[in-house]
Design a protein that fits this description.
About 3% of the residues have low confidence. The chain has a domain of 61 residues. Helix content is 63%, strand content 0%. It starts with a helix and ends with a helix. By secondary structure, the protein is mainly α. The longest helix has 22 residues.
Length: 250
C-alpha cells in the first residue's frame, strides 16, 4: 500500500514538474528566491504583470527597461513616468501616441524634440492643424505643410508666421492641390519653381507659359522635353544655345 502511495506521489511530482518547466518561461525565477537577481525580477514582473518587481531592481537601466516592457504589455502609459532617465521615459511614452492620439501625452514629454514630434504625429494623423501651434521648432512648418497637402487646403498654410514659410507650404501643397496653389505664392522664384514642378508632374507644357522670366520658362520647357523625350517642346525655348542643347538631349 505504501509502495503504491510512493509511486503515485512520484508520478504526481513528475507531472507537476513537467507542467512547471513547460509553462513557466524561467523556472528558477518563479519564486524569486534571490531578490538581487535583476534578470529574474524583470521576468517575474512580466510574468505576473506586476510593476512592484521592477521597483526592486537596483540597476537604473535595467529597472527602466523593466518598466518600459511592462508598460507595453499592460498598455499602461503611467508606468513610463516612473522611469528615471528623461530620454528613456519619453521614448516609452511616445509608443502610445499613435494608438491613443491624445495631445495630453505630448505635454507629459520633457525632451523638446520628442514633444514637437509628438504634436506633429498627432496633428498629421488627426488632420488637426491647431496642434501644430504647440511646436517650437522648424517641424512646425512641416506640420502645417503636410496637413495642407493631405487636406488639399492652402488655408492651412496661412497659419504660418513668415511669408517665406507660407510660400514653401504652398509649394509643397501644390504637389496634390495643383497649379492653383502656385498662384498664391508671393516669392517669384518659389512661384516659378512651383509651376515647373506641376508642369512636370502633370506633363503639361501649357503650365510653363505662366512663368514670366524667360530663363526659368526655357528651363521648364527643357526639363519637360527631356523627361518626356519630346524634342518638339524644345522649340518653345527662346535661348538658341539652350534650345540646341535641349534637342541634343532628347
Amino acid at each position: 500500500m505504501r509502495g503504491k502511495i510512493a509511486v503515485m506521489s512520484i508520478i504526481v511530482f513528475l507531472i507537476a514538474l513537467y507542467v512547471f518547466i513547460t509553462y513557466v518561461e524561467n523556472p528558477k525565477c518563479f519564486f524569486v528566491f534571490d531578490q538581487t537577481d535583476q534578470d529574474c525580477l524583470t521576468k517575474t514582473a512580466l510574468m505576473k504583470r506586476d510593476s512592484s518587481f521592477c521597483f526592486k531592481i537596483l540597476d537604473e537601466q535595467t529597472r527602466n527597461e523593466c518598466l518600459s516592457h511592462l508598460s507595453t504589455q499592460l498598455k499602461d502609459i503611467s508606468l513610463c513616468f516612473n522611469i528615471t532617465r528623461t530620454a528613456d521615459r519619453d521614448n516609452c511614452a511616445i509608443k502610445f501616441i499613435l494608438e491613443e492620439q491624445t495631445p495630453e501625452i505630448c505635454n507629459n514629454l520633457t525632451v523638446s524634440e520628442l514633444k514637437d514630434t509628438c504634436f506633429w504625429w498627432i496633428a498629421k494623423s488627426t488632420g488637426d492643424p491647431t496642434l501644430c501651434e504647440n511646436i517650437n521648432s522648424s517641424i512646425k512648418f512641416h506640420c502645417y505643410s503636410e496637413i495642407s497637402k493631405d487636406r488639399q487646403d492652402t488655408q492651412v498654410c496661412e497659419e504660418l508666421e513668415s511669408e517665406y514659410s507660407r510660400d514653401m507650404c504652398y509649394l509643397i501643397s501644390a504637389e496634390d492641390i495643383g497649379v492653383g496653389a502656385c498662384v498664391t505664392i508671393i516669392n517669384t522664384d518659389i512661384k516659378y519653381e512651383c509651376y515647373i514642378n506641376i508642369a512636370k508632374s502633370k506633363n503639361d507644357p501649357n503650365i510653363c507659359t505662366n512663368i514670366g522670366i524667360q530663363e526659368k520658362r526655357d528651363r521648364c520647357f527643357a526639363e519637360l522635353a527631356i523627361d518626356t523625350l519630346n524634342p518638339a517642346l524644345c522649340e518653345e525655348i527662346s535661348d538658341k544655345d539652350y534650345k540646341e542643347k535641349c534637342i541634343s538631349e532628347t
